[in-house]
Amino acid sequence: MRLENSNRFHRLSWLHDIDVYEASFDNHVFGRHAHATFSVGTILEGVGGYRCRGSDHVLPVGALTLINPEEVHTGRAVGGRLRYTMLYVGEAGITEMLGVRSVRGFRDVSPSDRSQVITQAASNLVLALRNCENRPGWRLQVEELIHRLVLATFSQFGGVASIRPGNEPNAVRYLCDHIAAQIADDQCGTLSVTEVAASLSLHPNYLIQSFSHAKGISPYAYYMSRKINVAKDLISRGHHPLQVGLDLGFYDQSHFIRHFKKVFGVTPGSIHVH
């Protein structure tokens, strides 16, 4: 039995002590165990299996694992390589993020993620957490993905009403100004929608939903768009694209080029000033 080096636990110490586990193995077997938290699992590759509530469950790509606190279960790969993610969130963190007094728990332990919203959010979450210190706006992105994942999971399978966006022009304007100021001060690594929402006396999930509804893009997408526009202006004034990417926190040039093309359709080196 050998677990691969890519297996990692990420503790989000600033966000309700949430744990994110990214796993990849082919022959590891988990014995009977339980967690003190809610567990939300997504299969990204291969087929997983586990025993819970007296039944065996086989999970292909697109299936979810939803386990309540203290619920005993096992875990294994079902032939070949298995790659999956698990999100561990305590009840206090769930109620805080959803703005509710309590949650009833999951009735179905292995539903299908038909919309793929949960699976996609989980996949993007582990990507955002890898080398996160070198990714501009990583904390803002992680918060958005966690809120999206938790809201989608508990609204679909936990009996919690969806959070609807509101008309909050002042809050949206404040967050836009805050993002611009953070980019100007090169403080984007600590940019947090949770902290901004607290300063506005709003719920973080509500602020994300309201901002996205008003602007047509999420706070993180807006932040990246503003940052790429700054990059274009600097390159247009004669700064070298490689140095601009580094100065703006894009230590991975492929990451910088990918985001630049999303906004302008060309690479940073394709800008010609006449």
TrEMBL record:
Key words of the record: DNA-binding, Transcription, Transcription regulation
Pfam families: AraC_binding (PF02311), HTH_18 (PF12833)
Transcription as UniProt keyword: yes
Keyword Protein biosynthesis: no
Domain of life assignment: Bacteria
Gene Ontology MF terms: DNA-binding transcription factor activity; sequence-specific DNA binding
Protein name from the UniProt record: AraC family transcriptional regulator
Residue ranges of every copy of the HTH araC/xylS-type domain listed in the record: 169-274
